[in-house]
Amino acid sequence: HHYDELFELLDIDNNGEQSNKKPRFYHRGESCVSCDDDDDDRVLDIEMCPKCQNSRLVYDCPAEDCKGKEEGSEECRACSLCIQRCFHCGRCINDSEYEETFCLEFLCSDCSKPSPKLPL
Fold first, then answer.
1. CA distance 106 to 98
2. In terms of domain of life, where is this protein from (predicted)?
3. DSSP-based three-state secondary structure for 42
4. Nearest CA to 68 among 50, 98, 32, 95?
5. Domain boundaries along the sequence of the chain
6. What pLDDT was estimated at residue 52?
7. What is the phi/psi pair of residue 78, to 5°?
8. Which candidate, 101, 103, 108, 117, has a CA 20 to 30 Å from the CA of 29?
9. What is the average pLDDT value for the chain, to the nearest integer?
10. What's the DSSP call for residue 37?
11. CA separation, residue 87 to residues 15, 47, 57 (Å)
């Protein structure tokens, strides 16, 4: 794979890189690494997607109640092509209700609820 060759050329330990990385969350079409990019020690932004095995940006699910976050499971960890994510909060929406906006963005049921109007 080109991914392995790139790691070899850059003299990067791929296994060590994977084990101590912080979660990366999808947020408004961009990545947010634990919401603080300065603390990220990643050498590369891309990694091997656990679902499709392609080199891409791979995201974690920020929802604490996500069914795919069970101990040792990476079911909800994948690139944005393998798992649809809410445009606003980044949670995986494969098995939950969602709404598609006019701009073809996906919103989970929580983010698609109208916000209460503030009193004047």
1. 7
2. Eukaryota
3. coil
4. 95
5. 2-83
6. 92
7. -170, 180
8. 117
9. 73
10. G
11. 30, 21, 15
Q: What is the pLDDT of residues 33-83, one digit of tens each?
A: 554 555 566 677 788 899 999 888 898 888 887 776 666 667 888 998 898
Percent residues over pLDDT 90 in the chain: 4
Token code pair at residue 68: 């795919």
Tens of pLDDT, residue by residue over 76-89, are: 889 988 988 888 88
CA-based max dimension of the chain: 60
45 DSSP 8-state letter: S
pLDDT of residue 1: 61
Kind and range of the H or E run holding 7: helix 2-9
> Residue 84 is encoded by which pair of tokens?
């649809």
Cβ–Cβ under 8 Å, residues 98 and 91: no
* Backbone phi and psi for residue 13, each to the nearest 5 degrees, phi listed first: -80, 105
